[in-house]
Amino acid sequence: MRNIPAFGLGTFRLQGQVVIDSVRNGLELGYRAIDTAQIYGNEADVGEAIAASGVRRDDLFLTTKIWVDNYARDKLVPSLEGSLAKLRTDYVDLTLIHWPAPGNGVPLEAYMTALAEAKEKGLTRRIGISNFNIELTKQAIAAVGKDAIATNQIELSPYLQGRKLVDFLQREGIHVTSYMTLAYGKVLGDPVIGAIARRHQATPAQVVLAWALQLGYSVIPSSTRRENLASNLIAQMLRLSDADMAQIAALERNGRQVSPEGLAPQWD
């Protein structure tokens, strides 16, 4: 089984023709990992774009996420089967629990076990978690085993570096996937990032994505503009110096963008 790709295409907040165009452009430019979720309401659009692209399924890495309404044991597998139908595929490469949603009535052990069953049925090649803190990650490990959890997809950016959680995940051998790496674009105007970008004749977005990649994270930036999709890919070729990395490390400010009430855990 392939590792989780370091670079993927996110589809959060993109729907209809907008997401179809973004995925089409991404695939034409060489993206082969696509990240979606049940709650995004765009799985069918993503499936349409992939089908029209002519890219072989074996060459793609598809990720989706189970929404909280589908955590119950009798709902999780059928909901994933519905996602597969929309995506026009027999399996996804990775399925995540989208939010821990403490207190939503379904125990963590129950939904993690149901997710493991989905893997056993061949609906997904890997399983993982998203937005889990250290304590809930420990509970997920207790439910299905450390080796079963392919990644924890978490919000990380130069303004929210989550070092305690990241250190824990890396010690446990759980891969880190960073979302909101550009903090809704807020970090792109940062003077420190700008100075590093000028030194490397790069864009601020390329610098931030390169920072995350050098820390060993996977990234899934999204864009509706083909030129930005192409530009983002170049971040894979950019090597930042130790001094650059240290400067970015100093930008931490606990600048979390996403923490929905009732879904989010107590953050570390």
**Quick check: average pLDDT?**
97
Separation, N- and C-terminal Cα atoms:
32 Å
Helix tally equals: 10
Relative helix content: 40-55%
CATH superfamily of the domain at 9-183 and 216-221: NADP-dependent oxidoreductase domain
Q: What is the architecture of the domain at 9-183 and 216-221 at the second tier of CATH?
A: Alpha-Beta Barrel
Categorize the overall geometry.
Answer: globular
Return the CATH class of the domain at 9-183 and 216-221: Alpha Beta
Cα-atom Rg, whole angstroms? Answer: 18 Å
How do the strands line up in the largest sheet? 1-2-3-4-5-6-7-8
What does this entry show, briefly?
The chain is an alpha/beta fold and 268 residues long. It has helices at residues 16-29, 43-53, 73-87, 108-120, 134-144, 163-172, 191-200, 204-214, 226-233, 242-249, and strands at 9-10, 33-35, 61-66, 92-97, 124-130, 149-155, 175-179, 218-219.
Provide structural commentary.
The protein has 268 residues and is an alpha/beta fold. The chain has a domain at 9-183 and 216-221: TIM Barrel. It has helices spanning 16-29, 43-53, 73-87, 108-120, 134-144, 163-172, 191-200, 204-214, 226-233, 242-249, and strands at 9-10, 33-35, 61-66, 92-97, 124-130, 149-155, 175-179, 218-219. The chain has an eight-stranded parallel β-sheet, with helices on one face. It is globular. The relative contact order is 0.14.
Features:
about 270 residues, alpha/beta, TIM Barrel, 8-stranded parallel beta sheet, 8 strands, about 40% helix
